[in-house]
Every structure is written in structure tokens, then in C-alpha cells.
């Protein structure tokens, strides 16, 4: 009997072990999925200083989590912390002492952790012992049962309030308990849980793992009943090459190395073992570091009529107060106002640009409303293209102003989309990622909102408007993104006010009849929008902008400039060939135009020559006529002169004769006087 209860657990355990081994050998090997970053979240990993615990802590830290390694060897723990830091992990890592063999130590650990006032999002119950010789924990419990199960049971229960408070319904906190396939063969001996009547290390180990699985299920039931944002999970890691297997029987120990080799090789690659650490496992990390160092940029365009709640939503989304200017309804045309802010969360820097449409929809001519938006988006693409085409490019420090996400604010009319909404979205859907949102969703009832959403989506589909679809090809986010694609457009509420609900201050809008909580998913879709836009799909939005929208702009622009990838016979042409062809075409064109100009010049010269000759002839005629007139005039004058000269001659002659006559008569008179005087003197 004693022998049976000693041997049976051994047989069962090794049988399960062989089964797991065969399963792992003949099934696809595990590849680590790409996980979203976990900045600002906190995890505790028990036994995180080595083995699976260390790998878990390391990966969580890489994802940006603040990781607390809980372990019973300070030296080992601090070394693990140092190693993770040296890898340049994103998150903070620290060590806290925890001896799971002592329930007192568990309480002290929880006390110390709670004193830090940190939230707790993930608790990994990883630490454990396997097949250790008979021994007891501090309070006298059998070692497997005490450490593997009771220690974690107490730890989880003492931290449960923290986990409940830190979780959100869209991002639950988690308890992850490391179990094992051996729980299938575990037997709970309720009469003798400590195995005192007949100790079997194998039986005790299987029992502790079964207890953990039962606890996990029970905890999940309790959480579900209470509606808390926490999940309780049990994990079977399968066969892992760690020190935990050091207590296996000797034949199993001997088989460990070759089995590990078989299990952990990549089936497609030619294996080449490295004799030491080379370091290329840090490649993904180098990429993360580089990106973090450079910082990120994200540009949001808010399109919506004046006063629809654009600025309030932006403030609520980023939990800050951006510079806001109230717009007037009398803008003659739509203006786009861009403001850039440098934000920082953990060690990630984000250059955020918010572009607002000022006066959108206020013009009589609605084309005036959307055309400026289209032009703005194109201008940003053009600037990027110009930078790309420069010989000396500086794209690494170029401020990329291309719009990554366009939040289109739909008025909460409950009726249908306005024609301006449809036209604008249609004009923009090939240029930008459009995410439609129903603004001020607190002003519309729940049933109306439901119908309104359906109406909007059917109108978008029937008008062929392509809005942004959250990507579903990445399996880590496909589930959530598929669900979110189904509830578009998001009905959002924004508020800068905080209202006290219970003992917490929350963002809300307060009305005489009640309070609308912005972050309550029963009240509006704000949390979903924030999650989708910022936490899950920000990188995809950036990528789609570059690979889809900008690519389309670039292609059209280059085609406009005459560049093509293929010639008319659909054969590929290189840039050099295109350049040569263009140059040839240009030179031919130049030559033709030169010839045309030359001929035109000759023609004009001839025309001018004829004109000149004509003018010369005319002038000659005029000259001849003038000459004739002149000679006629001259001969007339000569005639006149001659007659005048004759007259003068005649006159002179007459004058001379007259003078002569006058002279003679004077002389006669003088003689007569002299005679008279003489006579007179003779008488005296
Ligand atoms: N009921 C309700 N009111 C809101 C909401 N969001 C904003 N408001 C109010 O609407 C008014 C206008 O909000 P803004 O955020 O300035 O709107 P805007 O679109 O930025 O306005 P302009 O920039 O001037 O075009 C303010 O009184 C806000 O308090 C909401 O979700 N629900
Ligand atoms: Mg505003």
C-alpha cells in the first residue's frame, strides 16, 4: 500500500511528462508575438530573478512596464535587475524581497509594495519548487503546498484590491499563475494535505499545481460575479529548459540536454551553436531604443463645424489644456490652424500637431469649406516630397507635418449626414485616415444613437466613402480592432470639468438630471476612441499615411512630371533611361522651337523689309512731289523776283531821272536868285 502510494505519483508524473514532451516535439514551436507597449503599467513577477520568471520580467520591462522582481535572494535579484537595465529596457525594474515559504514574508512584501502607492496591472505567480526532498515552510506546511500554492494564494488575495482598482474594462488587470500539465494527475488528499502519512515529492508537486488551477478557476468565478476588471489565468508553459528540473531522477536528468536540443531548435534554419553571447538578440531592442531616442510625431486634423467640441475633445484625449481659440461664425473662408506641442509620457517623446478647421461649414459656397482642407493636406505631402527629392535630404530631423489621423466631427442631429460631410469625406478619403466621430453624444438618446450610427455607416457605404479601418491582420490586436470596426463611428463626449463620483474625481459633464462620465463606456465611446487612436493604432495610422496616402500622392505627382516605371511596351525603365528619354525629348523640343523661332524671325524680317521698302517708296514719292512743288514755287519766286528787280530797276531809273531833274531845277533857282541878288545889290 505504502509502496503503491509512493510509486503511483511518480509513474503518473513521468507519463504526463512524456506526453507533454511528445506534444512539443510534434507541434509547431512557439514564437513570441509582437505585443503592444505597456508603458505606465506595473507588474510583479515572483521568482523573477531566474528561469522563466527572469525571461518574463525581462520581456515585460522591454514592453515598458515597471517590473517588480519578487524573490528570496537579494543578490540574485539585484543581478537580474542589473542585467535587464544593461539591455536598455524601456521600463523600470526593481527587486523586492519575498520569501514565499513564509506567509509572514508574503504579508511584509505586500505591505512594502502597497506603501509605494503604485498601481498593479499584472501579477505573475511564477515561483515554485519541484520534487524537492521533504521539508516544511515557515508555518509548518509541506514545502510544495506551502510555497507553490499557499504563498501565492495569500499574495494574490492581499493584492486583489490593487488589481481591481488598476484594471479597466477595456484593459483588465491580470493574475497569471504558472501551473503545469501535472495538475491532471494531481490528487487532493483533503484528509492529509501535507502528505504526512506517506510523503511523495511527486504527489506533493502535482497536488500543489492542481490546487493552483482550482484556485485560478475559483478566483475567476468570484471576479466575474463581482464584475471587476481583472482576469485570473493559469498557464502551462510546457517543458522549459530551467533549473527547476534539477531534481528529476537520474535517467531523466541524463536525457535533459539532448531533449532540450531537440525541442528548442528552429526547424527551418541551419543550426549553428554560438559559443557565447553575441548580442544580436538585442536587435529589436536597438530599434525600439533608436525610435525612442528620435521621438515620434503624430498629426491630427479635426474637421467639424464651429463649436462642435473639437478642442474640448482634444483636451480630454490628451488630458491637458491645449491653447484654444474660439472661432467666429463669420469667417469668409476656412482657415487651418496648426499648433504643435511636445509631449512626454515615461521616456517617450511625442511631437503632437493638432490642426483645426476654423470656420468650417460657415460659408454659403460649401466648396470653399472643403477645398482649403484638401489643399492643406496636399501642401504637407508636397513639402515632404520636396524634402525627399532633395540631393541633401535631412528626413531624420524633418518635421513631418503630414496628417496621420483625421477626426471628422459629425453633428449629433440623430438624422443623417449633411451633404457637406459626405462631400468632404469623399474628397479626403484617399488622402487621409478618416475616423468619424459623433460629437456631443450626450445630447442624443441611446436608441437614437444606435440608429444614427447605422444610418451614418450606410450613407458612407452607399456614397463610396472609405473611412479608416482598424487593422485586423496583426493577431495581437485583431480581436479588439475587429470589434471596434463594428462600432464606428465613435459617439464621444468631451469635458474639461472633473466631478466627484464615489471617492474619485472623474472627467464628466454635469447636468441637473445627472452626470455623463466621459470615461464610462456605458455613457459614451470616448475610451474606445482613445484606446484605438492612441494606444493600439497610432503606429498603424502613421504607417498608412506614409505607405498608402503619401505613396498615392507621390505616384501621381511623379507621373505628372513624366516619370514612369514602364515604357509603352510595358517594359521596366530605369530612372536613368527616363532621364535620358526626357532629356532627348526636351532637346528635340528645344530644337524644334528654335527652328520655329528662326523661321518666324526670317518671315518677320521679310515683312519688315517689304514694309520698309513701301515706306521708302512712299517717302520717295512724297519727296519727289515736294521737290516738284519746291521747284515750281522756286520758279514762281524767281519770276516774281525778276519782275520785282525790273520794277526796282525802273524805279531806280525813274528816281535817278527825278533826282537829276530836281538838281537842275535847284541850280536854275540858285542862279535866278543870284541874278536877283546882284540886281538888287546894283540898285543900292
Ligand atoms: N454637450 C456637450 N457639449 C460639449 C461637448 N464638448 C464640448 N462641448 C461644449 O461645446 C462648446 C464648444 O466647445 P469647443 O471645444 O470650444 O468647440 P470647438 O469645435 O473647438 O469650437 P471652435 O474651435 O470655436 O470651432 C463648449 O461650450 C463646450 O463645453 C460635449 O461632448 N457635449
Ligand atoms: Mg476650438
Amino acid at each position: 500500500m505504502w509502496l503503491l502510494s509512493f510509486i503511483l505519483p511518480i509513474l503518473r508524473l513521468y507519463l504526463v511528462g512524456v506526453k507533454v514532451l511528445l506534444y512539443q516535439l510534434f507541434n509547431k514551436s512557439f514564437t513570441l508575438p509582437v505585443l503592444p507597449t505597456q508603458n505606465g503599467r506595473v507588474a510583479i513577477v515572483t521568482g523573477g530573478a531566474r528561469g522563466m520568471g527572469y525571461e518574463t520580467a525581462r520581456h515585460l520591462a522591454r514592453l515598458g512596464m515597471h517590473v517588480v522582481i519578487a524573490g528570496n535572494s537579494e543578490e540574485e535579484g539585484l543581478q537580474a535587475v542589473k542585467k535587464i537595465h544593461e539591455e536598455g529596457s524601456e521600463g523600470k525594474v526593481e527587486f523586492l524581497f519575498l520569501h514565499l515559504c513564509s506567509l509572514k514574508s508574503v504579508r511584509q512584501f505586500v505591505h512594502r509594495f502597497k506603501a509605494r502607492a503604485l498601481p498593479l496591472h499584472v501579477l505573475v505567480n511564477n515561483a515554485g519548487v519541484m520534487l524537492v526532498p521533504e521539508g516544511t515552510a515557515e508555518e509548518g506546511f509541506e514545502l510544495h503546498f506551502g510555497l507553490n500554492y499557499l504563498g501565492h494564494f495569500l499574495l494574490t488575495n492581499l493584492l486583489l484590491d490593487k488589481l481591481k482598482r488598476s484594471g479597466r474594462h477595456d484593459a483588465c488587470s491580470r493574475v497569471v499563475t504558472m501551473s503545469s500539465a501535472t495538475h491532471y494527475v494531481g490528487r487532493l488528499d483533503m484528509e492529509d494535505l501535507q502528505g504526512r502519512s506517506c510523503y511523495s515529492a511527486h504527489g506533493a508537486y502535482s497536488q500543489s499545481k492542481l490546487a493552483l488551477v482550482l484556485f485560478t478557476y475559483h478566483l475567476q468565478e468570484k471576479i466575474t460575479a463581482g464584475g471587476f476588471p481583472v482576469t485570473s489565468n493559469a498557464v502551462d508553459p510546457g517543458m522549459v529548459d530551467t533549473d527547476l528540473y534539477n531534481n528529476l531522477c537520474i535517467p531523466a536528468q541524463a536525457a535533459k540536454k539532448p531533449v532540450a536540443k531537440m525541442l528548442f531548435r528552429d526547424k527551418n534554419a541551419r543550426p549553428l551553436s554560438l559559443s557565447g553571447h553575441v548580442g544580436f538578440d538585442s536587435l529589436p531592442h536597438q530599434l525600439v531604443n533608436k525610435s525612442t531616442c528620435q521621438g515620434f510625431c503624430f498629426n491630427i486634423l479635426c474637421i467639424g463645424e464651429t463649436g462642435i467640441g473639437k478642442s474640448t475633445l482634444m483636451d480630454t484625449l490628451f488630458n491637458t489644456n491645449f491653447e484654444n481659440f474660439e472661432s467666429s461664425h463669420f469667417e469668409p473662408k476656412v482657415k487651418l490652424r496648426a499648433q504643435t506641442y511636445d509631449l512626454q509620457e515615461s521616456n517617450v517623446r511625442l511631437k503632437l500637431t493638432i490642426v483645426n478647421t476654423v470656420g468650417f461649414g460657415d460659408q454659403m459656397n460649401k466648396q470653399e469649406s472643403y477645398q482649403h482642407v484638401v489643399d492643406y493636406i496636399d501642401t504637407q505631402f508636397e513639402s515632404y516630397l520636396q524634402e525627399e527629392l532633395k540631393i541633401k535630404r535631412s528626413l531624420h530631423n524633418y518635421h513631418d507635418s503630414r496628417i496621420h489621423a483625421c477626426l471628422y466631427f459629425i453633428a449629433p442631429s440623430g438624422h443623417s449626414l449633411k451633404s457637406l460631410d459626405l462631400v468632404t469625406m469623399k474628397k479626403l478619403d484617399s488622402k487621409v485616415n478618416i475616423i468619424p466621430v459623433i460629437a456631443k453624444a450626450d445630447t442624443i438618446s441611446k436608441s437614437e444613437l444606435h440608429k444614427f450610427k447605422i444610418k451614418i455607416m450606410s450613407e458612407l457605404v452607399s456614397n463610396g466613402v472609405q473611412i479608416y479601418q482598424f487593422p485586423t491582420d496583426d493577431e495581437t490586436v485583431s480581436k479588439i480592432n475587429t470589434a471596434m470596426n463594428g462600432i464606428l463611428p465613435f459617439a464621444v463626449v468631451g469635458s474639461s470639468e472633473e466631478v466627484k463620483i464615489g471617492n474619485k474625481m472623474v472627467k464628466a459633464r454635469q447636468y441637473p438630471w445627472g452626470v455623463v462620465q466621459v470615461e464610462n463606456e456605458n455613457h459614451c465611446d470616448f475610451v474606445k476612441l482613445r484606446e484605438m487612436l492612441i494606444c493600439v493604432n497610432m503606429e498603424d495610422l502613421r504607417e498608412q499615411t506614409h505607405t498608402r496616402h503619401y505613396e498615392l500622392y507621390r505616384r501621381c505627382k511623379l507621373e505628372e512630371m513624366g516619370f514612369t516605371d514602364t515604357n509603352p511596351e510595358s517594359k521596366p525603365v530605369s530612372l536613368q533611361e527616363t532621364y535620358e528619354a526626357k532629356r532627348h525629348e526636351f532637346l528635340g523640343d528645344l530644337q524644334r522651337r528654335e527652328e520655329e523661332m528662326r523661321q518666324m524671325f526670317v518671315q518677320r524680317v521679310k515683312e519688315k523689309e517689304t514694309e520698309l521698302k513701301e515706306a521708302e517708296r512712299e517717302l520717295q514719292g512724297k519727296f519727289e512731289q515736294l521737290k516738284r512743288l519746291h521747284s515750281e514755287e522756286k520758279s514762281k519766286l524767281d519770276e516774281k523776283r525778276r519782275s520785282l528787280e525790273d520794277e526796282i530797276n525802273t524805279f531806280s531809273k525813274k528816281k535817278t531821272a527825278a533826282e537829276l531833274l530836281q538838281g537842275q531845277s535847284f541850280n536854275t533857282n540858285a542862279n535866278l536868285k543870284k541874278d536877283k541878288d546882284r540886281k538888287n545889290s546894283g540898285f543900292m
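The chain is about 50% helix and 15% strand. The chain has a mean pLDDT of 87.
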